[in-house]
Amino acid sequence: MITSFRILIDSSNPLMVQQLQHCLSTYSQEIVCTHNRSGHLDTLPPGPFDAAFIDLKNPHFNTARLIEQLKTHKRCHLVAIITRGTGLPSAVNHHPFDDTLTTPILTSALKKIIFQITASQQKHSAPTLPADFLSPLLTKTQQNKQLAQTLLERCFEDFPKQWSEIKTHVTQQNIEQLQDSAHKLNGAAAFCGLTAIQQAADNLETLAKNHALKQLGSALESLEKTLQLFFDQYDELINQLTD
To answer: Any idea which architecture 5-124 has in CATH?
Structure first.
């Protein structure tokens, strides 16, 4: 699964910020640091954060107010950074922390927290995929079950290769090739009436066309979830068409 987070680091310690930036850059599409901003919350860029690392010993913003603002958008995974051996307040303004990270920071501990953030994000993400692939497919084929089965089998055969090409192009930042591959998947899914896959591929194609590189990770993850749902339901879809 592709992991892509928008992360906030709240600390006035430049060395700590630098270490966290280096370790978290693998997992994030954007990292916002407060040490190079004035201490006003309105200087933060708009939009939700998936996780916030807050240095309780040396924060840049008022911690309680910062947490209140982070919680206004969506669930943000709060990580308190504390000195080893220091006690941790259970909550700030009744908002409990999801994790703690002690200094000096260990990479292994940070990876465990990233795993927790990933699990939390998946748990609380609202499903955006329709459960019914069959109805739009049968509409496309005018209720011809044999034709619908043929289309499904073709998609089941072709989609893994197309998905592999798309992943490679995103990893290698081959934007023109990515746009072409996403366009092909977009067209194939639309032809078969697989609306959810078509929409996810269309979104990826549009981002590639506009060179919106920072958003490619989350779009790729959305497409992966959609394709996985299709593959998970494939046998049952075939069974319904052959009944």
So the answer is: 3-Layer(aba) Sandwich (3.40)
